[in-house]
Specification:
By secondary structure, the protein is an all-alpha fold. The protein has helices spanning 5-46, 54-100, 124-127, 130-139, 145-171. The longest helix is centred in the middle third of the chain and has 47 residues, at 54-100.
């Protein structure tokens, strides 16, 4: 199969644009969910009347724990999907640069076949060509430390605030 260099570069460009928009969407979703979660638990803990009955304390505490579980799952998933999208963008940028410097007759059609995989967390590994997935595997382990610290600090901060909210519900007099 003969591939034209312009078509390959356009494919990488289109894919990069798609995943850049997806990356931004996931980033926004994670931060909005964090803010809503924070506002929700603070409202639940702060609006409780003094000398509330035990049943009200238990119900509010249970709601806070349920929100904590759901919030953690949602926010951590959004951050993970954002990281994945960032890796796809990086792979497309690097491959575009590499393909700018090769001759059209060096492009191999088999590079653009998909890999057979089992179940996946998302469709991307199932539908993207193996040349992109190989680059993504490199970027999944490189250059993530600062971002991981930021994401973890959000999760840890929300966890601490959840504990504070639970304590406020439990001991508010």
């Amino acid at each position: 199969m003969e591939l034209k260099k312009d078509n390959v570069l356009k494919y990488f460009s289109d894919l990069r644009a798609h995943y850049a928009a997806y990356h931004n969407h996931k980033e926004t979703s994670a931060w909005v969910a964090s803010a809503l979660y924070l506002g929700g638990i603070l409202q639940l803990a702060g609006s409780m009347a003094t000398n509330a009955l035990l049943v009200e304390r238990v119900v509010r505490g249970s709601i806070i724990l349920l929100l904590a579980f759901l919030g953690y799952k949602y926010i951590s998933t959004q951050f993970k999907m954002r990281r994945d999208a960032a890796n796809y963008v990086a792979a497309c940028l690097v491959l575009s640069l590499e393909y700018l410097s090769i001759d059209e007759n060096e492009i191999k059609g088999e590079w653009f076949k998909t890999e057979e995989q089992g179940n996946s967390e998302s469709h991307s590994p199932l539908v993207l060509p193996k040349i992109i997935l190989e680059k993504v595997r490199v970027y999944a382990t490189a250059g993530q430390q600062t971002r991981t610290y930021l994401e973890n600090s959000v999760i840890y901060s929300l966890t601490i605030l959840t504990v504070v909210a639970l304590l406020a519900v439990a001991i508010r007099q």
